[in-house]
Every structure is written in C-alpha cells, then in structure tokens.
Amino acid sequence: MEFYANVGTYCPDTERIIKFTEEEIKEALAMAPSAPVFGEGKEARKLVARKPESDTSPWCFIGAGGAPVSTEELFVSIMEA
C-alpha cells in the first residue's frame, strides 16, 4: 500500500504519473469487484478461481482479456493461438 501510494500509476496517454492517497487506495479496493466480468448482458460471466473437484462449470474466454492490442496482426495471432 505504501509503495503504491509513493510510486503511483503511469498514464501513457498523458505521460504523467497519477498519485493516490492510502485512503483513496483503500476505498477503491473496498469497491472493486471480487471477480472480473467478461461479456455483456445475458452473456456476461464472472471469471472465478475453481478448486479441484469444484461443482462450478469451467469456461474460458478467447482474446486479449480486455487488454488493448496494438496491431491487427497481434490480435490475429492471439485469436489463432
């Protein structure tokens, strides 16, 4: 926590470092979702960790997982992998 409050987050678009107080970090963590959600509407699914012998059905998503992809060539490579 102290490290992140001191270092901050680099924003490549503005080429600036965004700083947060420890209070802001704690508030953001408290409000953060417990699992990432992929998809939209009725196709939205939470990606949760499964343990061996879990009753939760496995599923996977295809693509860059929400990360930006810099070129179409890279996107195609990820999709074909």
UniProtKB/TrEMBL annotation:
Keywords: Methyltransferase, Transferase. InterPro entries: MtmB_MeTrfase, MtmB_sf. The keyword Transferase applies. The keyword Kinase does not apply. GO terms for biological process: methylation. It comes from the Bacteria. Gene3D superfamilies: Monomethylamine methyltransferase MtmB. Pfam families: MtmB. GO terms for molecular function: methyltransferase activity. This is Methylamine---corrinoid protein Co-methyltransferase. It comes from Candidatus Hakubella thermalkaliphila.
